[in-house]
Amino acid sequence: MTVNECSKILNAHDGYLLLTHKNPDGDTVMSAAALCRALRRKNKKAYLYRNPQITPKMLPFVEKLFAPDNFKPKFVISVDIATENLFPNGFDGQVDLAIDHHPSNTHFGAAELIDAERSACGEIVLKLIRDYTGKLAKTEATLLYIALTTDTGAFQYANVNEETFRAAAELVHAGADSHNVMLHFFRKTSLPRLRLEGMLYSGMHVYRDGKLIVATVTQQMMQEAGATEDDCDDLAGLSGRAEDSAMNVTIREMPDGSSKISVRSMPGISSCAVCAAFGGGGHEMAAGCTIQATPEKAEQLLLDVIDELCGAQL
């Protein structure tokens, strides 16, 4: 559907619950929060699903928007969720409207606003809020600026295009606190995060003459660094900084024993295809999945799939 058609749906309903995805990043959380605030400006009842995995760094921006325990939604919106496997922990209902920018979206929503050309879901929500309300509030602009910058690595990733910069300029014009966003999410980091990065770099496994790099973060490494989930934002891109790297894989051992996988690649090499083999998905050059195995076993499984699917490009 078009943005305008989506606006009409928002006008026609009430009692909204907005979902963010499992292991939430800044795009899903802040895009959902901005839309939630815009719905409230239009006198709609709207709340965020209380995703238990939202990190302390993001929590202050959204905690006042969480649904009370007794709230019974009449209309459910998913934001930046590509597959039903990524529904937040504890949610098992149906989605009435899916808003997303992943080309691998499995079309689970009864209605959908999907634009795979956008670098972040925040860009889609920006257009929707503008169409639905007429203008952005300053708080909404800041939330969407967080969404945009965190999903593009502060405009470093290959998904950035001229529309990305137009969106950023519009958000700053609308009052986004760009300086403090960059300071909070990119310029400053904790000492445990710095220790964890050092461990990650020193333990990288290098394959195919440096074209493929696998980095692992174990629970023991987290404990030794004194790190928490809040220290794990954007670990996926670190090993890809090696100059000859064409594909990099980050494996995170989760508390339940599973392995969270993030794959990043250069143009012409499909991260999405690799993750899809394990039930995940995402973008062509940035994707993720979960493997029910130890990091050691997960690494071997991934190497086998990468050899099969991407061996000719590496």
Short description:
The chain is an alpha/beta fold and 314 residues long. 38% of the residues lie in helices and 16% in strands. Helix 8 (191-202) crosses helix 9.
How would you portray this structure in words?
- This protein has 314 residues and is an alpha/beta fold.
- The longest helix is centred in the first third of the chain and has 16 residues, at 26-41.
- Helix 1 packs across helix 4 (121-133).
- The chain has 2 domains: 3-186, inorganic pyrophosphatase (n-terminal core); 191-313, Diaminopimelate Epimerase, Chain A, domain 1, CATH 3.10.310.
- The protein is built from 11 helices and 11 strands.
- The chain has a 6-stranded mixed beta sheet, with helices on both faces. A 5-stranded parallel beta sheet has the order 2-1-3-4-5, covered by helices on one side.
Percent range of helical residues? 25-40%
Mean pLDDT: 95
How is the CATH topology of the largest domain named?
inorganic pyrophosphatase (n-terminal core)
Structural class by SSE content: alpha/beta
Spatial shape: globular
Assembly type: single chain
- Rg, please? 19 Å
CATH class of the largest domain: Alpha Beta
Q: Biggest sheet, open or closed, and with what strands and sense? A: 6 strands, mixed
The tally of strands reads: 11
Element-by-element helix/strand order: HEHEHEEEHHHHHEEHEEHEEH
Q: How many structural domains can be distinguished in the coordinates?
A: 2
- The DSSP helix count reads 11
CATH architecture of the largest domain: Alpha-Beta Complex
- How would you name the CATH homologous superfamily of the largest domain? inorganic pyrophosphatase (n-terminal core)
Sequence stretches where pLDDT stays below 50 over 5 or more residues: none
Give me the side-by-side strand order of the main sheet. Answer: 6-7-8-9-11-10
End-to-end gap:
39 Å
The proportion of strand residues reads 15-25%
